[in-house]
Write a structure and sequence with these properties.
106 residues, mainly beta, signal, glycoprotein
């Protein structure tokens, strides 16, 4: 995945999910982000849609703190497990807009 789909994009890749279309969804606990790579080799979907601020952990709607995994629903909504620091799951619409969150640290 790193050699063919995003060399030098990841700091500490952690979880990977492949959706029904063959896209790769990768969480990166080191950069506090997630990225999606298209099924076509070398296609990286613009990170502004699907990542949060690189190397800046946090607990608001604009930051993750060591996200661990991603689940993608058939309708295009996706869920990010932001578990190591924040103990929460965030729900996004297909465009990458945050629509809900569940859980909290503590």
């Amino acid at each position: 995945i790193i050699e063919e789909h995003g060399q030098n994009l990841f700091y500490m890749p952690h979880g990977i999910t492949i959706d029904e279309k063959g896209n790769y969804w990768v969480t990166d606990v080191g950069s506090h982000q997630h990225r999606i790579s298209g099924a076509q080799i070398g296609l990286v979907i613009p990170s502004c849609l699907l990542t949060r601020r690189k190397l800046v952990p946090g607990s608001d709607g604009h930051h993750f703190c060591k996200p661990t995994d991603i689940a993608v629903a058939k309708n295009g909504y996706f869920f990010v497990a932001d578990g190591y620091c924040n103990s929460r799951v965030l729900k996004f619409d297909p465009s990458g807009k945050l629509v809900d969150s569940f859980g909290a640290a503590g």
